[in-house]
Queue: 2 jobs
Job 1
Amino acid sequence: MRLELRRVLQGCRRGVLTGVGRSGDHSLELPGCLLYTRCGTVPHLTHQTLHTLQHLPAVTLIPMDSLAEHQEVLEEFGGGMGKFAGLQNSVIFCSLHDSVAPHPTGYNTNKTVSVWGSGGRIELSVAQYMALQRAIRPDWYQSLADGDTQQLSTHKRVRKSVDRTLSNLDQCLNLHISTEGLRGSEVFGVVEGGVMLEERVRSAQETAKRPVGGFVLDGLHSRTVSQELRSQLIAAVTKELPEDKPRVLLGVGRPDEVLECVEAGVDLFETVFPFQVTERGCALCFSYDLDPDPESSVLESREKETKIQQKSGDDTLENQEEITQFEMNLKDKRYRDDFRPLVKGCQCYCCKNHQRAYLHHLLVTNELLAGVLLMLHNLEQYCSFFQSLREALEGDKLNALKKRILQRRE
Amino acid sequence: MAASMESKAEMGAVRAVSAAAPLALRILAECPVSKARACDLILPHGTVNTPVFMPVGTQGTMKGITADQLQDLGCKICLGNTYHLGMRPGPELIEKANGLHKFMNWKRNLLTDSGGFQMVSLVQLSEVTEEGVQFQSPYDGKEILLSPEKSIAIQNSLGSDIMMQLDDVVSSTITGPRVEEAMKRSIRWLDRCIAANKNPDRQNLFAIIQGGLNAKLRKACLDEMTKRDVPGFAIGGLSGGEEKDDFWKMVTLSTDNLPRNKPRYLMGVGYAVELVVCSALGCDMFDCVFPTRTARFGSALVPWGSLQLKKKQFAKDFQPIDPDCQCPTCKRHSRAYLHALFKTDTAAMHHVTVHNISYQLTLMRSVRESIIEGRFPEFVRTFMKRMFPVEGTYPSWAVDALASVNITLDGACSGQGCDSALC
């Protein structure tokens, strides 16, 4: 695997990863995103519906949380998770934790890390974790890590998390070399350190000394970490990392946060955000168009005004505060008779075939198709946003894009 | 658009069953042994090959699978429920969307029920009078009257290719004067529905034969309703928990008395054995929520019964649901993967829904081909043997029903003097 940096603009790395995957014949444009799945399936979607989308990420992410309980099955199957899930031609990255699922705190020890599957908690030692990876046979996987730190964790706890994670990494790398089934896979080292700058730097420096294929920046997704602090920590970390290896940030996905993290030196994200938007019955509708049609942008800002007015009104949704300015809440009554596509010009199956009123109906009646159509739309929009970001970096239009994304902040 | 133009042109060539109805039935083959037949049913949104199973998309969607997926499976007609759609989003909105086809973006045919069946399922909430069915909206508690005129008005707004008359539905297990009252009222309501149809040139209205399990009442209903110039007939009031021996006798009585040149729709039937047997009895169309509902519980239909994919026995079973099945699910996924996915994501349900719809449609295509090729009785024997491989386990009602149309099953006992516990 080779990382070729084409240019660095305001800290943003525009590049391409080539020779990706065991076969070495995939490539991945940076900055980019990994396709979030659980158990190898993008939530709500079958192979048939997923592949109505044109520009899917080349790497599929599968969290260990959704796999650990299937160890016996995967071992007996013997062909690896990709083949098991019907993902024959995909590059698979096995991460540790599902960014969406809750992870109770206090279960990691010096010897083990816990993951949570459908049947509850599963405690994994390094040896067990590596046996699982051997059965999964990913193209990339992250080392076992203790990311169980909070904003209020003591220095001692944070230091322990860094030490444990480094020790786990060394053990993983040892076992990796001796495991026949993992030949050709890349191990990604995990940078921990909570919100403590010196621990973050130490974790980065030490991890960078090891023979890893890339880096996962863990423990920065907490809602309690402000973007300002997150950016500072990430910038300090990426300064310590070699330029020629990819940096993955999991659990962060809002478009404005993505932009700032890219400026701090992150290369790869996951498509968790579009899934979260789908789960609350919303559709991404933010503008990332670099050359917007002036007429439609006037309309857009007008629409935004009414949206804000409406918000102060009688919206009784419990998760209202979670709804970001990048999305529209299709459960809202005013979409009842709105016969426009979700987003004009969007190339997804949903926008080419359906109207807002239909989506509103599906959501109100709790129909399963709502999740399918919204997931398709939100993935399309999100992947296009990354495409636009890469184009902005190539065409010196980053500031214009930032302005476009941030203008909708309230 | 093209499809509807084409079918209109086709309709010109075949004599339409009634002067104005937008429907034509072309009988391609009739089984020389049984009453089975294979037809082309030409409707405003394309031709439907019968016998046909129609999947049910209650609220304007096929349970998590897209219109394109449904079309790719070869589905030419599916159902929408008037009761549900009339409540949400309501006929005014669907009219504003230019009909249910446009609203859900389904380019092929739609059949809507009358909303009457929900009278049985929501009986606590409803009261039936000559005027119609009075019930309380479960959404806002408002009193609503569903009259024959109202049902047709809603179905006119939905724009379905086939509408069903409002009938007075009573449980198939009820006996006594209420059954006769319901049958007679259904005839009066049929006349009101015919008069209320604003779009007889675009929307077909089917009558529904009632009469419970009473042969005399059924026959009376058949005699009366077949005098009306409707484009098709449904056999109603069955498949509600009655004895199978009563069920098939009512079906065969109905097909014996329905006109040959009009489609016959057996409502609420969808188990594979029932589909095959009732095709032999001369039914053309079927619908049931069973295949899609059971899919969501992890039950996959196969020629030898069903697989409960959530059961532990499938955790390490790396074969597809049915190795002979050509559906997208079977071509890509194993039972073991689906078993694992059922613990994680709703997509597991979609995979099995796709498979089960494919199973039903493929089964009906096989029935049709065998009728056209003149080997239907042989097909039935092979089908039954695969479904009930253990000797003496054929359900007796199916044996009797098939025998009544001259199809005898290999190794099936007549029921008399047999000491099998299953007889």
Job 2
Amino acid sequence: MSYLVDILVSASFWAAVIRIASPLVLATMGELICERAGVLNLGIEGIMVIGAFTGWLAVYQGLPLWGGVGVAMAAGMLFGLLHATLTVPFGLSQHVVGLGVTLLATSTSSFAYRLALPEVTSPPKIVPFQPLDLPVLSDLPFLGEVLFTQTAFTWFAFAIAVLVSVILFRTPLGLAIRAAGENPSAVEAQGLSVSGLRMGAVIVGSGLMAMGGAFLTLSAFSSFFFEMVNGRGWICVALVVFGAWMPGKAVLGAILFAAFDALQIRLQQTPIGADLPYQVFLMAPYVLSILALILMSRRAEVPAALMTPYSKGER
Amino acid sequence: MTRADVQAGDYVLRLDGIAKRFGPLVANSGITLDLKRGEVVALLGENGAGKTTLMNILFGHYVADEGTVEVFGQPLPPGNPRAALAAGVGMVHQHFTLADNLSVLDNITLGTESLWSRGRGRRAARERIAALSRDFGLSVHPEARVGTLSVGERQRVEILKALYRDARILILDEPTAVLTPQETDALFETLRKAIAAGLSIIFISHKLHEVMAIADRCIVLRHGKVVGEVDTHATDRARLAALMVGSEVSLPKAEARRPGPVLMRLDRVSTPAKGTATGLRDVSIDLCAGQIVGLAGVSGNGQAALADLVSGLVRPDEGRVEIAGEELRSWTPRQALKHHIARIPEDRHKTGTISDFSLTENAVLEGYSHPPFSRRSWMDWHAAERFAKDIIAKYDVRCQGPSQQIRLLSGGNMQKLILGRVLEPSPRIILANQPVRGLDVGAIAYVQSRLIAARDAGAAVLLISEDLDDIQSLSDVIHVMSEGRLSPAFPRGTKTAAELGLWMAGQGFEGRTHAA
């Protein structure tokens, strides 16, 4: 048990938690916006891959880091547009379209990677976002290492979460998005466009997912490889449920999952790690997440019109 | 011309030559309608006559194939609810367009502020809603979640939505179909205040006495066409009814009969409360062969619990349930079917039918697991289709055929299919829960005559209704429910509506010891 306590009080552990949570926070916010508007976006996994790839490629080709983030967002929004067009005006099955978008985005990334870098065998590196060095704050004991030596991209991710929460609950636009996910005919009867709101939400949400993917190549690692998203998109879909479609709770969920993940890596290096097969540790965050999901999602209020296509004038 | 320029007597709304088809179905054809300031026009017609379609065209949910809409002298662009709202048209839909998980305030203000404005003027909105509530007698708590409100309260929110946007023309689509008599009175009070404030109202209904009470003028639709336009003070209910259905209709009267043996007996039964729904409290009731037992009461006073119990959805906590003298050991919906209990559910859309299934599939929902519809685990769809065709012919279900999806049928025709499904196997006990709610005069007469015929054939009928007129005209014996308790049995004609009303309000139950 003392290993556990040692890990939990170390600043480097909590710094890692925040770092691991950042891409999840961005992509979870993207998924949450989509689902609040009534569209389940299972394209998330592939859109994260496309974000990771295009963001990295843009920087590799000489764009500044934030330029890479912008390129990733634009690429994500393009796939979001595809998803939205098929699911909103055409009203196709959101499951099938989402999985299709994931497959398309993933394979497009790998195809484009081969086209762009035909000769390369080991993934080329870029110079990623560097830890901030703030006067005074970065030198604070504990908090300095946990919060104030993160990269600017991490701060950006958490700022986006605050922004999403404010927009959803404090602005007329947020009310309209939530209403589109609860009862589209109420939105229609109040003179708003259900299609416009839903398409906008899916496109913007997909942009956030792609930025979550770009975090992996531009901040967490410095190169792109194909398996790097590795199911994080699916975790984000679960985090939205875990957070009961509330941004704040979903962020807490992302931090919790990140903590499990950071913990298992460190536990592997303790003597316990020598006794147990390492797969057990890799499994642990997912098992714990499922348990947390079961506990948390009991009372969750699903948006009433989630996954229900809406077509105007139907009887 | 601005709204202020409109003088009394000017038309606020003109529909001219409206036509609309859905595939082969002509929903509206050549409809012309005018509405003056401060006027209440009733739009009457049977189910499927085209009333709702016409109003949906006016409000921009549908685009008319032909014809124009003018509001305050300005043509309204077709298919644009936003333009209709901006022109001062407010619609209270029959199936409310409210988001259950949002608050009353959110539902009302949705879409009234620019989407790109940074904050929300919640305080100003709350004050305005409070003022409107006061002026029009529409009390409702602005922070309450809509999902927790009663049907009457939800309707008030729908009306507030329209008033909040300064609607000058209010369209109410069957507003009283879901209301109790008391709520209807309150609604009419609100509407009179709205008229006094200069609004004009289109009132869609097929309850003739309500139309006579509130409307200045009636426009009658049949098969998508205007077939008559009359001033309400120059006509009467019988003439309106005849106009609606195209011939004279008289509601059936049940003649008194001697009851047969007890088929189902509840003896001091109590059931658990389900969430906010009242359970049964110490209820005893006898259902006899050849007798219609009417159950009156304000909705939410335990009628649902009694219906669930009889249909096998709920087991009693305490007390005995006997069928034909034998106490029941296990009690499930399947058992209820086995004991030949026919169930006409309260909500034909949610529990009575499966919307996307065909008429054939819906017709065998209860009997599918037995011959002739299935043998050795294989469905016999030919037998099922014959059965559906049989019902369609015998019960006059208007449809395209047995393979049509049932959601495309009007409420009355859906109800006829359910009647056929449950009555054809000659049930011994019939649970009729609000069997005529939302139906038009012709369909009501039909459903009621079928119930009387079933009674005369020896079935025990339990009729649950919020409409005292229905209860009194059909029932041999009347019970009143209040807060899960059951009044004594009142034989036909021994209590006036006013006396029953007192029981409905809960008087008479106090100090009543059970006479078992």
